[in-house]
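re: that chain from earlier
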Amino acid sequence: MSDCSKHIPVLLHETIKYLNLSDTGVYVDATLGMGGYTSEILKHSNCRLISIDRDPEAISNSHSLKRKFGVRFTVVNDLFSNLEKILRNLNIDKINGIAFDFGVSSPQIDNPNRGFSFRFDSPLDMRMGRNVHSASDFINNNDRKTIENILKNFGEEKKARQISKAIVSSRPITTTRKLANVIYSVLGGPKRNQIDPATRTFQAIRIAVNNELEEIQLGLNASLKLLAPRGRITAVSFHSLEDRIVKNFIIQNSSMQSNSNRHLPQISKNKPKLKIISKKPIIPSENEIDANPRSSSAKLRVAEKIEYNIKPSYEAA
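^ sequence. v structure.
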């Protein structure tokens, strides 16, 4: 879900194309959001679709879609990492495709009450769903080193140490405005036509609060187990940390695996599970970027579950 002030589904046409929809198929939209992908999937085929979102507000906003598409459409308020449990409860054992769209959604970031954005002076929250701990809890209850590591690893913030020291010395911090001002005290204030200096720190804290990167890995692993042969995974990422997880997941599952340590007993190579459909990440067109500048960082990767012909264990007489 892109960090857009206006809801425009990113790489929508390409996602629908590469899902390879079938009228008889069962598909999953792992991140319902405002329903952009969900609506197009249901319009483009007579399939069954299960849409998942951890945010209760996204579920509440899906009533019109439910009225329009009826029994073909099921919506579930849960984490997509729980995909196996969700589908088991629906008596579904295989799916023909799944669409992931990572990150924060437009309604979340544009609602001051959700506390995602430094554009508003609001309670520092950032919870996408029913998380127990908020961004304020994270900031005020962790030690300086933990905060530094999060800013460095999840925000790729070069001055993570200085910012984490300033945060700890300024606590308690309970509003987005106060946190932004602490960051500006280290990095300087916003400058016209440049990325706001608070962006990386806010991103890092949001990722930590919502456990986003582990969710991505768990969701991808679950989807691979549940894909039917020739079923497809499409994944739209918005920054390098997300894309790296998707890229590595596809590479690891599309190559022959063997024991690379010559000092250990060699194990037989496992057959690849995925075929790479997009050799390079698919990126938005110039027209899409013009219409939605924040789509410029988006990357779509696509992979397909390999179908193996199972030969009988006996020779015909």
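The chain has two domains: 12-106+212-305, 111-210.
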